[in-house]
Amino acid sequence: MNWEAIVRMGDQDVPEVSRILEEANKRGVKHLVFGYIAKGFRETETQMKQIAENSNKAADLAKKAGIQMCYHNHSFEFAPITTGQEKTAGFEIFVSEFDKDLMKFELDVFWAKIGGLDPLETMQRLSGRISQIHLKDLKAGTATNFDEGTVAQDAFQELGDGTIDMKKVLNRAKEIGVAHCHVEQDQSPNPLGSIKQSIDFIRA
Predict the structure, then answer these.
(1) What does the pLDDT read at residue 42?
(2) Do 147 and 120 touch, CB atoms closer than 8 A?
(3) What share of the chain is helix, strand, coil (3-state, %, to 5)?
(4) 3-class DSSP state for residue 13?
(5) What is the pLDDT of residue 45?
(6) Under a CB-based contact definition with an 8 Å cutoff, are residues 156 and 180 in contact?
(7) Buried (b) or exposed (e) across 64-83, using 16+ Cβ within 10 A?
């Protein structure tokens, strides 16, 4: 998805989103996910609230087209943002500002964990608001990191090799009505070997 087009979407700039939805419908897409906000667009409360507002507009159009709009997190959303005299996180702004009936989350448990959150607690908290889960494991001893570009390649682990209790994650996903769980590993020296190991773990 052309996320910058949505970020800049005003009331007169809906056709770009409509075109994306038209193409998605041609391909039978039922969940449309945007998964990244570039640096420079995500640092302030104002920016994050504007993104949430525009996301709701796009999600409303998506719903009318029979498509569920979702947001995929990394870890930068969990970095503290100054809001007046206090600090919050961009993710908390999204939780508060996303329309619960329109916008859902595609929670990536790796990025939640490395961002300092407990994936299971986060899933429970957002019960009914998560349509999809991304599954990848986090290497033991990896420090909290809000900059996705500086995460070590070996921090990304096959399911069962890291610190996230994937069995509990899958059980929780079923409990809260998650539609899809995707195995994803951003970095691997042997991608086919990694996905086989993760699939074998799930099957077991």
Answers:
(1) 95
(2) no
(3) 45, 20, 40
(4) coil
(5) 94
(6) no
(7) ebebbbbbbbbbbbbbebeb
- Angle of helix 45-64 relative to helix 90-97, nearest 10 degrees? 40
- Are the C-beta atoms of residues 70 and 31 closer than 8 Å to each other? yes
Structural domain including 173 reads 3-203
Cα 172 to Cα 122, 130, 200: the distances in Å are: 10, 11, 20
- Chain center to CA of 140: 22
- pLDDT band of residue 15 (cuts 50, 70, 90) is low
Domain count, the chain: 1
DSSP 93-159: HHHHHS-TTTEEEEEEHHHHHHTT--HHHHHHHTTTSEEEEEE-EE-TTPPP-S-GGG--GGGEE-T
Contact 34, 3 (CB under 8 A): yes
Question: What phi and psi, each to the nearest 5 degrees, are found at residue 66?
Answer: 80, 25
- pLDDT, average across residues 144-170: 97
Residue that the structure tokens 């939640």 belong to: 112
Percent of the chain with pLDDT over 70: 93
Structure tokens at 135: 């599954």
| Amino acid, res. 201 | F
Q: How confident is the model at residue 85 (pLDDT cuts 50, 70, 90)?
A: confident
- Tokens 């640092």 appear where? 43
| CATH number, domain with residue 7 | 3.20.20.150
